[in-house]
Amino acid sequence: MDHKAWLKKALNDLKSAQALVENDLLDTAIYHTQQCAEKALKGFLVYQKQSIKRTHDLRLLIDICVEIDEDFNDLRNLAEELTPYAVEFRYPTEWLEPDKEDVLEAIEMAEEIFKFVEERN
Question: Do residues 1 and 46 touch, judged by C-beta distance below 8 A?
Fold first, then answer.
């Protein structure tokens, strides 16, 4: 699969998060923010002809991207914030839903990662 397919899936996750937050489906929306970032970073690695790690840990993906382009260090804090959303609200826990403000912030972070990667592909 080429890098454009990864970016298309990442963009679909971003759009899903935006649509879901408008319908107050906050737990699912925040999950898609992490998925957007993960697929964007993996798309960059595919573009660079690197193997893809089977991981949801955005910090690990950033570490791999930094080996290719040190500017990815600028995304480290965003990756740190988004990584837990791969599982945090995915299953029933005592915190069933994130705050809407947190979801909107996560959407902005995912979009920043997506645009950063898109500029490099």
Answer: yes
| pLDDT computed for residue 6 by the predictor | 97
**DSSP H helices in 1-121:** 3-22, 26-47, 58-68, 76-82, 100-119
Confidence of residue 95 (pLDDT cuts 50, 70, 90): low
Give the C-alpha separation, 82 to 4, whole Å: 22
- The pTM assigned to this predicted structure is 0.94
Domains parsed from the chain with CATH numbers:
3-119 (1.20.120.330)
Summarize the confidence of residues 78-106 as an average pLDDT: 88
The burial class, CB within 10 Å (0-12 / 13-18 / 19+), for 101 is exposed
CB 20 within 8 A of CB 32: yes
Instruction: State which amino acid sits at residue 75.
Output: L
* Residue 120 DSSP symbol: T
What pLDDT, on a 0 to 100 scale, did the predictor assign at position 87?
85
